[in-house]
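Researcher: I'm preparing a figure for a lab meeting and need a structural model of a single chain. I don't have an experimental structure, so a prediction will have to do for now. The sequence is pasted below. Please return the structure as tokens so I can convert it later.
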Amino acid sequence: MKKNIALLTGGTTGEWVVSVKSASTIAQNIDLEKYNVYRIMVNEDSWFYEPADSIKIEVDKNDFSLTVNGQKIKFDGVFIVIHGSPGEDGKLQGYFDMLNIPYTTCNALTSAITMNKGYTKAVVSNINELNVAKSVHLFKDQPHNEEKVLTNLNLPFFVKPNNGGSSIGMSKVKSASELTAALEKAFNEDDQILVEEFVEGREFSIGAFQYKGEVIVLPTTEVKTTSEFFDFEAKYTPGATEEITPGNMNEEEKERVERIIGEVYKELGCRGVVRVDYFLQKDTGDFYFIEINTIPGQTITSFIPQQIKAYGLSLKEFYSMIMEETLG
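Model: Understood. Here is the structure written out token by token.
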């Protein structure tokens, strides 16, 4: 018997447009012989299912159900593909935990922690062979933020919202005169920001997921961008970056990275598919953790679909594995 799956998309941040594209990829590739898929839009005003143009059916949030043609539909599981709030910060996860409905992502606690870049770095910093760039954690409207940054960090550095993804609100600062504008840009996106010293090296992004108790680390993607750094436009504009999958690592680097990523997945208590961004430092080859994304993009230009292909799976097989692991 087919399982009813809610595919949640949208959200309340600027990342909703990426979420909608990700949901389209999943909807086109999920196994419809196994699952009845209902794409549900979540925004600040409402949660609704849109079976046809101009027809919107509101979700009953009391039990997360739909009534379609007089029939009440309840869900066996939820595929959350909302980047940013409320899909990636633990809010929806807590809601579904209370309703006892399984979902594809990390749990509420892990989602909340990993949404905060500063807290995440504190959790993973004790992992063997993992390094983190020196950083300063700032809060909006606190005095002397600029002084704190310039006193404690060496230029250049990155300024980024502490909660968020897709590099929205992020800047690279190469001189002290650029700092004020960079802080304002980041604080427009979040009340907390993280300023990190620049680590020179090769940038990579790598996916991992759990299936039948085993953490599977996917082939990594090496990122070479023509932009100053890997920002929102570089991420989602075809041709703006050179993305090499599998990335160019020697056997020692490959084995070490896979070992570290497995430890990151376990240390943070992850579930479902996640993506970790990292540097291999120039000259040393040391692993520097950048951030983890617990609901990585699934758009046509996203890394996970590239890495799934390189691993030797179809997206249909991959999404079935994710749903099997979710539903138990």
